[in-house]
Structure formats: C-alpha cells, structure tokens
Amino acid sequence: MATTNFTDGGSKIKTIQELACSPSSADGLQQPSIYLAAVNMFLSVTAFLGNFLILVALRKESSLCPPSKLLYRCLAITDLLVGLVTQPLYATYWMSLVYEQRSLCLYTYYTACITGFTLYSVSLLTITAISVDRLLALLLGLRYRQIVTLKRTSIITTTFWIVSVVAALCYILDHRITLSFGCTVIPSCLVISITLYSKIFRTLRHQQARVQDRFQQQPGQPNALNIARYRKAVYSALWVQLALVVCYAPYDIVVTMIMLRKSYSSHLIVSKDILVVFAHFDSSLNPFLFCWRIGEVKQAVKQTIRQTLCL
Fold this sequence. Notes:
3% strand; globular
C-alpha cells in the first residue's frame, strides 16, 4: 500500500487513497458523482463496442502489413480494456462515494489507478512505436519487410505491457514511483513522436520534389499513388496521437501538480478523477478515427455491422 502522506487542508495527515475516499471528497458531490458514474458507464459501452468492431475489422483488413496491423490491434485492445475494466471501476468508485462505502472505495480506487495507468502507458508507447514504424517504412523502402518483422514487433509490444504493468504495480508500494515513471515516459514519447513526424514530413517533401524534377510523375501513376497512400497512413497515425494528447493533457497537468505540491486538499484529488472521464473519452473516440482515416477498416466495420444485424 502507498505510504506517502499528504495534508488535507493542512491539518490531518492522510494517504492519497484516503483523501480520494474521505467524506470531504464527497461533500456536495453526491449528485455530480451519480452523473459521472453514468457517463463512465456510457463511455464504457461505446469504448468496448467500438474497439471490438475495430479488432474484427483489423482481422479482415489485408492492406496493412502485419507489424503495423499488430500495433493498431494493440492500441485497440488497450482501448477495449479501458471500456471493459477501468471505466466500470471508476463508476463504482464514484458510487461508493455516494453511498459512503469506504472499503469498496479504496479497493476500486487502487484497482482503477493501476489498470488505468497500465493501459494509458501501453497506449502511449504503442502510438510512439507507430510513429517509428511509419518512419522506418519511409526510409527503408523494400528492406522494411525484412527488418520490421511480426516477431520483432510482437517482442516490442510484449515489452510495453511488461514495463507498464510493473510501473503501475509500483503504485501499491509508493505512488510517487509510478508518477515519476509517467513524468519520464510521457514527455519522452511526445518528444520522440514530434521529432519523428517532423522527419517524416521533411523526407516526404524532398522525395516529392525529386520525383517531380526527375520523372515528372503524374498524380495517377504508381509512384504518386504510393506516396499519397503513405501520407494518408501517416496522417491517420497522427490524428490518433493528437486525440490521445488532447484527451489526456488536462489530466497529466493536474497529476503533475499533485506530484509537485507538498500539501493539497481532497478537492484536488477529486478534480484529477473528474478529468479521468475526459481522458478515457479517447478510448471511445479512436474507433471513429480509425473508420474516418482508414477506408478499408471503415468498410470492414460496416460489413460486420450488417452481418450482425442480419443475424
């Protein structure tokens, strides 16, 4: 159990979990807590169903190469688990505050924090890996399929899960270990992604200029089509990453404030947990982004829905 102590309003010493489940946390929040629980459950259903359809569509879709498909599948699995596990736990946490079930509150808060951090960390690392994958596809050309194999990608994604689970479980010993890991990984992933996408767009501009100067390619010819398809894939990955950043940025800022402050009230903890709802909206948003940006996935989702309704 985390043993780090904080001051609630400068008086009583409590752990961060006790602050989250203290009676002061529920003061005046009974009705909002019910609304938050309801929103969590609604988003839980949309995240689960949406990402289940995406997983089915990715299984049918054949235009993506296996390593890229595995990365997108890993991302969809984390979003599905957010809807299946983390969001119901947070809904239970809010309702336990309403009914003043302290033991249930502590249990669900611990579990929700651990599972939520694990899935967020895996999602962030996977999206960063997608940016690396897109750059390698551009730079390696025909050697891409030889170097970026399904086996190597599987090892990388498995490593993401192991590292994320270990870092999340450290929350039980001391939440500062987990927060420190997050404060290191999140900026690192963002810097890596920004650097890689900048490199991608610079390389694309240079390649397009060479194609136009040397071969005077027309838009309907094969090389131009390959560049256009690659650019679309890059923008698809970029939209997914931007959605993650926008949804989780407010939550990350508040968590950083909590880590830096030596004393704070339970209301700051509640504010963090409210922002979790907005952060988890990303898991419901990603299936729409997949369907919007990847035409083959959209068609596969439509086909799956039609087949299901016919049954």
